[in-house]
Model the fold of this input.
Amino acid sequence: MPDLGKYADTVLSAYAASLLLLVALVVLTIWRGRKVRREMETLESRVKRNG
Amino acid sequence: MSIWEYANPKKFLATTEKVMPALWAGSAVLITVGLVWGFFFTPDDYRQGSTVKIIFLHVPSALMAINAWFMMLVTSLVWVIRRHHVSALAARAAAPVGVVMTVIALITGAIWGQPMWGTWWAWDPRLTSFLVLFLFYLGYIALWEAIDNPDTAADLTSILCLVGSVFAVLSRYAVNFWNQGLHQGASLSLDKKENVADAFSNPLYVCMAGFVLLFIALVFYRTGTEIRARRIKALMARERLEA
Done:
């Protein structure tokens, strides 16, 4: 860990907030993507079954 | 081969799914290397102290906040002119990514500004135009959600995107034509003799490349999700008709 001096809280809080937002964006994007893909596949197979 | 082939949703999905692993991996590697390099292996600035390390998040996120809007503008214009649905859906998919980038730029700027300027916020031209850009992003997302007919939503959001572009340009160039602001000039510039020192600019370039790849990966993935969501709506409508 580098010596951040008197600005340690400033630097660490900026990194924590940014990384949290980036991770949340990626996780939510993939979560919704998988959910929609599952829904579409279920619906497509139902439509095929029903002709 | 023409770029318009990718206006076909199937072709778009098939192509983007091939490049997605490389985009995810590339962005993860570049962002990790850039941030580790910037955080652990760069010296403190003689005036800013260790707060200079915030630049590795602030500049790439601000870069993407503005350029995401321009990407939305281009795809919106393609929708308006050529009526390609994938294009409108790509603009829709990019907006939440742009809003997160804008929030990161605003938060890191405020956290840095408190010890350096003595205030979290100032009604400085660049900060204010960035805040307006953030509000435009929220309005754009809200407009998509508020209108049921996807084509009407794409038309209206395209117009909003065109209007919001004024603030995207303003947030990029405000420091150049308004001298009364607190915000300093660009940290990196092709036409400027004095950029930040190489010790800072090299990891910064790596972070910027990582953010660009992350943006592309997220937009491709989210556009695929929007295409599938649209297909779900079409299939449900078909089922209702047949029932």
In short: The mean pLDDT of chain B is 90.
